């Protein structure tokens, strides 16, 4: 049974998406505010971290993939009848994005995940993925409030905000980008999909979007012949 904390966190993210117009991909990562000088300073003091473990997918290794999946699930926890980040395959979305259009954030994630792991070991004697849900929430709250020690670049708050934005994208962006598996996020907010056209009668009807077919960008692409 989900806790009140889980329910409030889910309600916050769903409300933010609905308020922003639902299911769009126009989110802007917070990491852009970090300067090249900050990146260079971080590299000089911490070295090239997080190269351990076998590679998981397009960018993450297995350890980092497990951490990001657990982090995203606490941001958007699943419940009976309500999909969460794992159900929507948010990890796959972030992994693909960091190997592609968000490749400029690769070092941001490496260093953020290293700092997160170090903070968890210092405060709870275990990595993030081994903490129970309550302790994971404590850690995430410390990041959100920029109170988690050991973060330089990125700051704790910048790391939290960026992962939260990417979790929202993975939940609610078109499935063609690798997340929103089986339209889990769209079903959650009642978005019917990227229909090519609505008639004036449809737009005037309060029932126009109720129970409509879920259609993504990939389904609308022209098929190749021959």
Notes on the protein architecture:
With 226 residues, this protein is mostly helical. Helix content is 50%, strand content 0%. The longest helix has 19 residues, at 106-124.
The beta-strand count equals 0
Percent of residues in beta strands?
A: under 5%
Provide the structure class: mainly alpha
The average pLDDT score comes to 77
In the predicted model, the low-confidence regions spanning at least 5 consecutive residues are: 22-55
Radius of gyration: 19 Å
Total helices: the number is 10
SSE order: HHHHHHHHHH
Report the principal-axis shape.
elongated
Please estimate the helix content. Answer: 40-55%
Largest sheet: none
Give the N-to-C terminal Cα separation: 52 Å
List the helices and strands and how they pair.
Elements: H1 4-19, H2 36-46, H3 62-75, H4 90-99, H5 106-124, H6 133-144, H7 156-172, H8 184-189, H9 200-204, H10 217-220
Helix pairs in contact: 4-7, 6-7
What would the keywords be for this entry?
226 residues; mainly alpha; 10 helices
How is this structure best summarized?
Helix content is 50%, strand content 0%. By secondary structure, it is an all-alpha fold.
